[in-house]
Amino acid sequence: MHSVVIGAGTMGCGIAEVLLKAGHPTQLIDRSSELVSQGHMRIQQSLERAVSKGKLTPEQQQQALQLLDISSLEVTRAELVIEAAFEDLNLKKELLAPLSQRFPRAILASNTSSLSLTEMASACHHPERVIGMHFFNPPPIMELLEVVKAEQTDQATLEQALELARSWGKTAIVVKDVPGFASSRLGIILGMEAIRMLESGVASARDIDRAMELGYRHPMGPLKLTDLVGLDVRLAIADHLTREVGPQFTAPPLLRRLVRAGRLGKKTGRGFYRWEGNEAHE
C-alpha cells in the first residue's frame, strides 16, 4: 500500500517508521525540504538504534530506508494518507480536503488526539473514507492504536483500518468521535491533576511520577509523559476539552506559565524536567 505521512515531526516520523517496517512505500512531506530532511535523519537514527538493540537487522534497516520517499513536497500517489500535523482543526481540514478530491479511493486518516473527525470528514469530497488513527508516542514502540469513527466513516474503511493495524503489529480499539476520544480524556485528566499537585507542592515531579509508575504500573508518569508529548500540545488539548466537555479539564496556571516561557518539554530541553538526550533530570 503506497502511503503518505504529512508532518515530519516526532509523531509523523514515528508513524512513517511503522509503515516502512511493514513494507509500505511511504512518502514523507512537510512545509519545507529542510523539515523533511530533518525527518529523514530522525527516521534513520531511530532505525540505527533499533539495529544496535538487535530489534532490526541491517538488511531490514536498508529495506525500510529504500521505501522512504522524500523527493517532493507534493503528494504524488496515495492509497493511505496519515496526517500528523499540529492540533489545529482548520489546518487538518485544509490538508485532507484536496487529497480527498485527488485520491478518491485513498483512506484519509488523522493522527489527532482530540479533534472532531466528523468535522474533518465534512470538508472532504469522500467523507466515508476519513477515519482517525491515533498513534501513541513513540509510534514504533507503543502497541495501542485508537481508531476513531467519524459519523460518515463507512464499514469498509473501518475494516481496512483495523486490518492495517493488525499488519503493523498494533492492537486497535474503536471509539466514537467524541471530544478527546477515550485515551486523551483519561490522560489529560491525570496529567492536569499531576500538574496541580506539583503546583501546590504535594510532591516533586519525580515522586509524583513514581507514584503512578510504581503504584499503578504505568510505564511513564504523567509529568514525564507531558514533557514527551509537549506541554504546548497538552495545553491545546486541555483547552479544547474544557470548551467541548467541561471545566474538569481546565489547565493549571503552571502549565500556561511554562508554555509561555518556551519550556515545552523534551523538544526544547526543559519542561517539568531538564532533558539531556533521552535522559530526564529534575
How much helix, percentage-wise, in residues?
Answer: 40-55%
Order of helices and strands: EHEHHEEHEHEEHEHHHHHEE
Query: CATH first level of the largest domain: which class?
Result: Alpha Beta
Q: What amount of the residues lies in strands?
A: 5-15%
Main sheet summary: 8 strands, mixed
CATH topology of the largest domain: Rossmann fold
* Named CATH architecture of the largest domain: 3-Layer(aba) Sandwich
**Termini, distance in Å?**
44 Å
Morphology call: globular
What spatial order of strands do you see in the largest sheet?
Answer: 3-2-1-4-5-6-7-8
How do you describe this structure in short?
The chain has 282 residues and is α/β, with parallel strands linked by helices. The chain has 11 helices and 10 strands.
Characterization of this structure:
It is a single chain. With 282 residues, the protein is an alpha/beta fold. The N and C termini lie far apart (44 Å). The protein has an 8-stranded mixed sheet with strand order 3-2-1-4-5-6-7-8. A two-stranded antiparallel sheet has the order 9-10. It is 47% helix and 15% strand.
